[in-house]
Amino acid sequence: MQIDLHLLDRKYEALRVRNQKEERRLVAVLAEHGEVSPVVVVESAALAGRYVVIDGHKRIRAAERVRHDAVEAVVWDHSEVDALVMMHQLQRPRERSALEDAYLVQTLVTEHGLHQTEVARRLGRSPSWVSRRLGLVSELPEWLQQSVCKGELQCHAAMKYFLPMARANRDDAERLAKHIAGLGLSTRQIADLYRAWMEGSDEAREFVVSQPQTALRVREAAREGQSADESNAGLLLQDFERLHSISHRAWRLLDRALLEGIEGSTRRRIERAWQKAQRVAGRLGDRIDKEVVRDD
Questions:
Q1: pLDDT above 90 as % of the chain
Q2: What is the pTM of this model?
């Protein structure tokens, strides 16, 4: 059914973070085709004739931008709590961020009066999961939550890089978040800025915070300026570090395999593979001894 926009109660809009790229795509689809999938609503228990939006806030904002007066909607015959829980269960986990889960838990606990154990049961989660999500809301500063909700920062980048940065220097974290808002930086680029800030002097940190795009270009140019020998040497070092880790893992797996028992054909294949590895490792060891260690 078609429902006029002014009849929609969008009080749960803040439960979902914004994705600016996806919203631009929806606006383009609406402008070209005039329709998208329907939104999900329930009848308002507080105001007759109004509907509470459960899912579809991006579609509603897109409809407003192309000056539509109404949207197509599916009306669920459920309470708000039941509808919110059902929508959570229908969505795939990768469609939500940890912060969106946290906002839903907070809403169910603080606004609808559900006990944490009841929230855990209804969402099919453990009580510790519910507790961690509530802790996330209290842990992230309000300004950082706002940046995530507006789509200026990805939730993962906010938690992994901006949160520890804010703990060390809130002013720098806020300024950096402000300067990169709207730039569409990837998580990898934000991680690069965070590393540059962590490793830099006071002057270097100021440069990263005030001119993040330039700082990224400088770091990229520095990486590209490395010689092939230096780059290959770095890759060689990484491979040796992996070999060290693999050797420790193989030792543990051998213990377990011996306890379980190794049947004949598999035992012979392990023996042949180990002999090949020994030959390659032996030749490589001779080269390292002659051309690397002795050169020093």
A1: 42
A2: 0.59
